[in-house]
Amino acid sequence: MSSLEPASADTFAKQPATTQRPLRAHAQRNRDKLIATARTAFAAAGDTVPLESIAREAGVGIGTLYRHFPTREALVEAVYAAELDDITTSASALLERLPPQIALRAWMDRYAAFVAMKRGIADALRAGQASGRIPTSTTRERITAAITAILAKGADTGSLRADVDPDDVTTMLLGIFLATAALDTPEQTGRLLDLLIDALHPKPGQ
What gap in Å lies between CA 173 and CA 175, rounded to an integer? Predict the structure, then answer.
């Protein structure tokens, strides 16, 4: 999996950063609905899904879609940005309501869904990376930071090992997703993630 790091979703609005104005509440709601609808559509059918169907499902006209996202690539990049923001901030939300080891397993499932969605829009993402619209420098760091937060909480409570390098966990996750991508077997992916969680439990005497 390549490291693709977009800026926040607002980066991909049409106006340059120096002249861009905040969206009115109604326009922001439409933009958010389009991104949410596109996220679901891209996860199910990839980035070839007709834009007209995305607009229709979001309850807006195609003109509204194009006002926010003048090209398919702009919509894809905004969806990716929103997904990355969500996956990297979800760790703290999970820790607020779940024990660390359960939060980590739930976060892994969320990360797996993110990776699956990313495969569906891979061509457009590569185009954005090549053009420089999508920075690529810190994606892995953001993912690893989310893992670090959960591991640290687990170490504090004694439910997760304290001697694990978070980047090693990132590497193992990427290996699992890469190895199971062609097979498209969510059950096997789940079993492998369970094995990884088992490996992160403290050893007897720790």
Answer: 5
